[in-house]
Specification:
This protein has 323 residues and is of the alpha/beta class. It is built from ten helices and 13 strands. It has a seven-stranded parallel beta sheet with strand order 3-2-1-4-5-6-11, sandwiched between helices. A two-stranded parallel ribbon has the order 7-10. It has a two-stranded parallel sheet with strand order 8-13. The protein binds nicotinamide-adenine-dinucleotide.
Length: 323
């Protein structure tokens, strides 16, 4: 398959690129490296350091090959940052994605996969969350993603570009070979932060211990990036086989509280992990957990990796990060 990947030098994108390269796909990556790492890309991948918003340059990349699909990972992805800098998020995630979608649709791309997020659900009325829950996003990041889902829907009827919007829950874990991994600065995600605390490299704060959950801390659904990568492959295959556009959750279907994550990380690392409680953060729902029935039925996909795999692969990476 010939695939154009945006944001392929980032955390989730690079794991997808590695999987597809290993399967012999012809991969082209667009990434402006604002938050990614060129070292995360295999040598045989064609790379363009450009932004998705650079319409003319994107069109000329799209003209290079008869791409089977565009996989759009590129975005800014920090909820907290988006609350303080909504302009940055609407500019990059909405205007940038809009220009990319226009370029792809006008260039005759037939299949488009979009990295959406569980945060479009806001404070969900019911958990586990299924796709029929009405999305009411509560921060600019999540709103930017829902806007793009709607743009894709509107473009399809005119340009015939079918799409899959994949609403990831918490992407976690690292490549099992230790070649690539998660490297964000600053790191916003719980599991690497717990493990950085285990390594004595960072102070760990748990935000809120008075939620309506069994131990008072937030519950989240963690999905290994390799499982996400495989779901993307199946998502492309379904569209290519003539499937209709769709919106689905990608998660593990299991929830772990922050304290359960620390406990499992202590078992994996073999030591106590120091942490402090801090006040709740604005906009953190108590529980986010996916109903993954649709992904199972539509994609014939289910996660292979469990929480121990996620934590141990992240720990191996953080002990010896390559970037
Ligand atoms: N990590 C998660 O838990 C999670 C959860 C839900 C959704 N997502 C979504 O998945 C996607 C990937 O997330 P990630 O964690 O890998 O993020 P990341 O920051 O590691 O990767 C994003 C990549 O996009 C690139 N990029 C950003 N803006 C760009 C632009 N205008 N043009 C070209 N490249 C640009 C960055 O340089 C980076 O390499 C994002 O769209 C994110 O919103 C991630």
């Amino acid at each position: 398959m010939k695939i154009l990947v945006t944001g392929g030098a980032g955390y989730v994108g690079s794991h997808f690129v590695k999987l597809m390269s290993s399967l012999g796909s012809d991969i082209t990556v667009i990434d402006n490296l604002s938050r990614g790492h060129k070292q995360a890309l295999p040598a045989n991948v064609k790379f363009f350091q450009i932004g998705v918003e650079e319409y003319d340059k994107v069109v000329s990349v799209l003209k290079e090959k008869d791409f089977d699909a565009v996989i759009h990972f590129a975005a800014y992805a920090y909820v907290g940052e988006s609350v303080g800098k909504p302009d940055l998020y609407y500019e990059n995630n909405v205007i940038g994605s809009y220009r990319l979608i226009k370029a792809a649709a006008e260039s005759g791309i037939k299949n488009f996969i979009f990295s959406s997020t569980c945060s479009v659900y806001g404070n969900p009325a019911n958990v586990p969350i299924s796709e029929d829950q009405y999305p009411i996003p509560i921060n600019p990041y999540a709103k930017s993603k829902l806007i793009i889902e709607n743009i894709l829907h509107d473009f399809e009827s005119v340009f015939g570009m079918r799409y899959a919007a994949l609403r990831y829950f918490n992407a976690a874990g690292c490549d099992l070979d230790g070649e690539i991994g998660e490297s964000h600065k600053p790191e916003p995600h719980l599991i690497p932060n717990v493990l950085l605390a285990a390594l004595g490299k960072k102070k760990l704060f748990i935000y809120g211990n008075d939620y309506q959950t069994p131990d008072g801390t937030c519950i989240r659904d963690y999905i290994h990036v390799n499982d996400l990568a495989e779901a993307h492959l199946k998502a492309i295959e379904l569209l290519k086989a003539g499937g209709k556009s769709y919106v689905i959750n990608l998660g593990s279907g299991r929830g772990y509280s922050n304290l359960e994550i620390i406990k499992t990380a202590s078992l994996v690392t073999g030591g106590q992990i120091p942490f402090e409680f801090a006040p709740r953060r604005k906009g953190d729902p108590a529980i986010l957990m996916a109903n993954i029935k649709s992904a199972g039925e539509l994609l014939n996909w289910k996660p292979k990796y469990n929480l121990e795999d996620i934590i141990s692969s992240t720990f191996s990476w953080l002990k010896n990060p390559r970037y």
